[in-house]
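Why predict the complex rather than its parts? Because the way molecules touch one another can change local conformation, and only a joint prediction can capture that. The input here totals 1129 residues.
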Amino acid sequence: MASRLIRNRAAFPALLILAIIAFLVALGPVLAPQDPLAQNPYELLQGPSAQHWLGTDAFGRDVLSRLLAGSTVSILASLLSVEIGLILGVVPGLLSVFLPRSFEWISLRLIDALMTLPFLVFAIAMTALLGNGLIQAMFAVGILITPAFYRVSRAAALSVANTQYIEAARLMGASTAFIIRRHVVSKVLPAIAVTTASMTGACLSIVASLTFLGIGVVPPEPTWGGLLATDLTTLYERPFGPLAPGLLIVATVWALNALADVLRDINALPEEART
Amino acid sequence: MTIAAQADDPAGTPPLSAEPRVFRPNKPKSATHLRFLGSLALISIPVFLFATLITFLLGYASGLDPAAGIAGDAATPEVIARIRADFGLDRPVAIQYLDWMAGLVRGDFGVSWFNGVPVLQLILQRLPVSLSVAGAALVVGIVMGSLLGIGAAIWRGSAFDRAVTAFASLAAALPPFVVAIVLILIFSLWLNLLPAAGYIPFSEDPAGWLRIIAIPAMALSVDIIADLARQLRTGLVSALSENYVTGAVVRGLSPRRILFVHVLRNAAGPALSMLALRVPMLIGGAVVTESIFTMPGMGKMAADSALRGDVPVVQGTLVVSIVIVLACSLLINILLGVLQPATQRRD
Amino acid sequence: MTKPRLPLLLGLALTALLVLAGCGSSDDAAKARVRWAFIMPTSWDPVTSRTGADINTISLAYASLTRLNKAGEVEPALAKSWEYSEDGRQLTFELRENLKFSDGSPLDAAAVKAFLDRGKTQKDSFLKAELKGIDRISADTPTRVTLHLAEADYQLPYVLAGRVGAIASPNAARDPKKLALWPAGAGPFRMVEFIPESHAYFEKNPHYWDAADIHIERLELTTSPDPSTLVAALLSGSIDVATRIPAHKVKEARERGLTVVIAPSLNAANVSINRNKPPFDNPKVVEAFRYALDRRDFVTIVTAGLGRPTHQPFPPNYFAFDPEIEKRWTYDPKRAQALLREAGYAPGQLSLEIAANPQTGDGGAEVVQAQLARIGVKATIRVVPPGSSSWQSEVYIAKRPQIAVDGTIGRESPIQNLLAVYGPAGIMNLSGPYASAGFLDAVERVRRTPTDDPAYRARLHEAVRIGVAQSPSNYLYATPWIIAARPRVKHLNVLPSQIRWEGVRIE
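Output of the joint prediction:
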């Protein structure tokens, strides 16, 4: 799958953007020319200059450094949320196909219940009521995207579970665990890969919304959403301020969604591919 | 920002359940309808119970209480313990849950720990605001999404089609607050056409109400437009290439009739399912627009109350949202059943 | 056919929307309506109001016994005159005739007595400390009320110009919980709608004693929009007057044609320190913090140069301000670090949590954090959630933080302000109930001095000096009122102690 992905031409722009973002995340804090927290009262709200490539904010801090430092926080938070959702969703999703009916019914209704909750409101409520930190936010978002992973893995497992070779394996005495490990996982992985890509994009968007609203933000740590919020407050003095964090957010989310689309295409059967 | 909608939905499973469709031989129509509605109700109730349980546990897990606000100067541990007992917060969790549920059924959502106003009253004051914006967003989203999706399908391959697809993929990548701010910048600051804050009730001034919900509704609808356009386009394109369409054309039916009477019906299914999944997002997304526009809506109240630790208000708002979502899902399921009787034949 | 119809439909829809958008209603001019974006009060009952800023909103529904003018001098309001006895221990007010509350009951001497009694005795009253000096109140005639004081107190006429004298209807006060949510006063306006944490709508009260000077028919009070949309909200007419406008938006507001009023206020921002919590129970640490903060940075970053540094809870140019205090401590980070080392904290060893108020902070907490980092103190910021009373509950009542970025909005009487920020029951005294005996004595001395006495100012300055020295908190800078309004709002009435609406006209 990976080799097919790299050779796919439609995937190129998305992969390029993601590679740049990964680079920023990994090396951002090291590359940052200045301390993202150092305030300079004599250089407030300046435009781009040789010393400050993206200018300074309302406290005289270097915007570029803050952006780079914020990349790590924002991306890692999203990845952690997706990881939580993945583990909480895929495992029950797979098991629901192979375990007795009662487990299936309960897990289905639980997932339905999670889907009924208003996403952002519940994420805010959970984050704020449990301590209002970024960790709580990540857990909240992770739990709320569990249904997506559950449904995908369950659907994929269902399509495999009733095939003949699984039946044959059972007749030969293979245990459920073995069947899952040997046969089901490889069939489920592509679908999960697609969901992971799109969910990462969604999580990034939500984490940006939360930090924009000031939830889960611990000042003065920079986050993309938080930076965007403050940039909008100083829009008049720095009209192009919101562009940098805004573009980063939109580009990353778009790239992840595009990646998900490409993955879906290369894994789908010809007649299921998008026209 | 599409979440559950992007969770690969094999052939459009009906909302309210992660269960894929299973087909059975035909039964008499009325019995099918009744069985269908009955099974829907049977699923809704445990879902409601689970969702409210999650909501309640969230409040319980927070460990918060109204003591600090009430005790004032005399905030000794004994006083705090007494206040907690007054509010029943020292009882076992199961008892508290049952008591709370009993209150919900009676319509007693408790009292705000913050200003002593009954939660239901606070919610009812703000519900019209949120529903206005969400409803308007839904209408705009459905209308524009349908127009764009149908147009893209009819003129597939043209520049219009490519533009719609590009717009859809871009819009999906925009967080809701970005859209809201951009719209404010354009319509309020630059063109000076629409207001940027506040809320006017419809009863007070219909034209003013429309002007004030215009930008928030547009901001919330972008997601729906993008999703709906994409879904409809895909669904229509594949439906239009089906055999029965060729057959209808050969038989001389007008393209308009083919489109509206036959094809749209079948393509609408997945689109409607997707819409049902969007309703929770719509209610939640209102938080962002309400915050940016300082509208006295339910979402903003929930967010502010959560930050203040006002648990009863948060729980009340969540329950009301859950009920709205379930009601919408039920409605859409019924609509799906009407549009596509095949979906009623379920396990 | 479908092809031509789609564009037509789209076009029609858009046109309809634009037409509706264009014909927005604006009967503002006809009704002389003002939309004021400010804050919601902590309580609509003056007795349970928890913060000084509430005077601005409470004055909408309530009138006080007296009133201050722009110079800070006392004027008649509900009372048309007052007189002290020879020994200063009896203060008699003569009320105007035929005053009425918004619920119809009469505002007479009995009502004033009932209100002040309630302020002294109601369990959750926040006026107790300020009414402590009054032994008893007597309603001599329907329009004459006498306050019998334990000691002479010449500050009272000033104090009664604020919340302490904002007489509420005793009828309505029989249900204090309801009064906290719906005011019943004799002020310039009458409330007609209130949604908590959102807005309050008022209409002109024709029975207000100074109704002739009120030219506004309807006043809509709302919470302030997000700073990023504030100017847009003003320009589009969603609000007419915005009081909490960040200093750096002044330039933008002016350039976009809005009226910007910058007027003297009694506002002073500070870093409140809690000596009851470590590390501030160590006097050396307290002293280190005297030298740790560079006030000029605050003035530049937070107030965009519109403010002035101050070491005391008063702005320069106010009569209670003592220039001598400013010379006592200077910005000296090396000295601060040396003192910290003496206290046992090498650079990097001291960690603090700063409580910050998002509604009034304007970034002050982050500046404090950065400056503390320069002397080797690691500080994290804890944002106390927004809401009209959460700051009060967390910081003023529970006094949980070690250190908080706060400020005083000022009081009608300088002694009142000193007690509110340094007194044992002072809500802004984070070190409460600590207050040195010397300070309290000095305050009493000022109280007993008539305000026209030549010794008054000197005694006042002495009390301020002692107060500043005995409190671990450090005042940083004073900001003026910064108000942005649409040009249609004329003659904004901005006093140092509060905003009022007499004389304000709408075009």
